[in-house]
Amino acid sequence: MRLSAQIPADFDSPEPYMHAYRTHTCGALRPSDAGKDVRLAGWVHRKRDHGGLLFIDLRDNYGLTQIVIAPSSGAFAAAERLRAESVIRIDGKVVERTAETVNANLGTGGVEVQAAALEVLGAAEELPLPVFGEQEYPEDIRLKYRFLDLRREKLHKSILLRSQVIASLRRRMIDQGFTEFQTPILTASSPEGARDFLVPSRLHPGKFYALPQAPQQFKQLLMVAGFDKYFQIAPCFRDEDARADRSPGEFYQLDFEMSFVTQEDVFNAIGPVLAGVFEEFGNGKRVTPANEFPRIPYAESISKYGSDKPDLRNPLILQDVSEHFRGGGFGVFARILEKPKTAVWAVPAPNGGSRAFCDKMNSWAQSEGQPGLGYIFWREGEEGGAGPIAKNIGAEKANSIREQLGLKVGDAAFFVAGSPASFYKFAGLARNKVADELNLADKDQFKFCWIVDFPMYEWSEEEKRIDFSHNPFSMPNFDHEKFLALDINDRDTIENITAFQYDIVCNGVELSSGAIRNHKPEIMIKAFELAGYPQSVVEEKFGGMLNAFRFGAPPHGGSAPGVDRIVMLLAGVENIREVIVFPFNQQAQDLMMNAPGEVTPKQLKELHIRIVEPAKG
């Protein structure tokens, strides 16, 4: 059924020809337009009946305009039958609102349009989820009907913000002299990193392409080719599990690389880009100036913050208080400290000095799978500290701990003990939990830092061998001649080698990893050899890049800040799916397009593939 009304004869078109759908957007009209005859088109955001008068909030990508329809209007009958989210065209006259009816929250809030005619361009059926308002709704429904979900104001704004951020990043990189390139999407599988998404080759039976986890090798080859400063907004593909700050399947990053640079040059290039974008879109929040991003060595970050991506809005610093427990007092900690490579760390808790708060933190630790969380708290009129630990170690040691941590009466401290390699992540969680519970962090800012001096290698207890800690293509921060002379069994030396590798972190979110690259073939072969990869594997998997280096490669380095995470921080959302237009769910499924899905036997035959069903039981 066509719901429409004819335009009255006395309706004056503002032009000899009126556009078929609109003369203005729903965000354009202002009091200066009063008296104009206009045509608007959009979605019925909300419909209200006020004593016979119908009011429609008409919405498009640009804003919202209030439409008023009187019973005498030729549009009234059609308007009465409208469902929310129907797409309509309205013809009418702009009227300035009275002072008491102005909506100061809307750009168009000073006017309304008195409708003379209405045509339904696209009728809406009953909605599976509401668009008006920001009600919580099950994620599976939201993702199945993502085209409706995207009409909701908050999500719609976040997606527009994403586009604006990408445009700003691109502009800032070009202004710094970077050139944009596109690298291949179909490439070779890599043995490092996450699982690849594989693409079978029809022309080469039994062989597969891989979607790139990152343009790592290609951007380095561009440097070898002499292009000097490269960037792209790069799609990356990894077959990995979802989490709040990582989308399964695909993500985007500001990928860049530079030739003839040191680590400092890379910092000076990308720092102003990121700081500038956060200043531009941060809604007035303070942003760490680009030339003031702290440089925190990896080992220091672990010991002070319990994380290699610290949230520096949190002022708390972890401290080693082992000496206060060594040799007796509190038996549990004393016995732990008898073992090598063990420690007791303290989490200070200013203003946390109550039994109730300490019990709350202890219960939280148990919910995290820990046996509990030891504590001392200091209160008025009590010598030393309160709690079981304080009673065991005595007033003198309890006061010494308080003095070391810079605490006072009314404060508390929590303790974790064992091997720092095993407990540091929990200590970092406890640090953040204390700050959140006691409102210690200043959240009205974007706090950046660089994490530097990452370990090049680590011991894999599972495989009983040395392996790469992070990026295998990083240049070792170690004398090259001595590096080439290292024996694979010299575990202590190898585990203490750091790399020219760095992360950029904002508010506890890792935005990117980067490195000065290993551009010397002999150093690269040796680096992989120490991680247990023979030269034959390096030649096979990275032969293209390795051979390129043999024909003259410049020193080069770069990074790749994650676009999705940048927008997530700027939009103030906790889940990365809130800034991606059409995301997968946590099971890596597209519920709207039904992907992944089955394909026909003909397609499988062309690709020389046979489906083997998983074994039952």
Query: Low-confidence parts lasting 5 or more residues at pLDDT below 50?
Result: 1-10
Which descriptor suits the 3D outline?
globular
| Rounded radius of gyration (Å) | 31 Å
Tell me what portion of residues adopts beta-strand conformation.
Answer: 15-25%
DSSP helix count?
17
Helicity range: 25-40%
Cα distance spanning the termini: 55 Å
Strand order of the largest sheet: 6-9-10-23-22-21-18-12
Largest sheet: 8 strands, mixed
- The tally of strands reads 23
Task: Report the structural category.
Answer: alpha+beta
Mean pLDDT: 93
Characteristic terms for this protein:
617 residues; alpha+beta; eight-stranded mixed sheet; five-stranded mixed β-barrel; 23 strands; 22% strand; globular; disordered N terminus
Walk me through the structure.
The chain is of the alpha+beta class. The protein has 17 helices and 23 strands. The chain has helices at residues 76-80, 139-144, 146-149, 153-175, 216-224, 263-281, 298-305, 331-336, 355-367, 388-405, 420-437, 480-484, 491-495, 521-530, 535-549, 563-571, 601-606, and strands at residues 37-50, 53-60, 63-69, 87-96, 111-122, 179-180, 198-200, 208-210, 229-238, 249-259, 286-287, 295-297, 319-320, 343-349, 374-377, 412-418, 445-446, 448-452, 457-460, 465-468, 501-506, 509-516, 556-559. It has an eight-stranded mixed β-sheet. A hairpin with a 2-residue loop joins strand 2 and strand 3 (63-69). Helix 4 runs antiparallel to helix 6, helix 5 packs across helix 15 (535-549) and helix 14 (521-530) packs antiparallel against helix 15. The two termini are 55 Å apart.
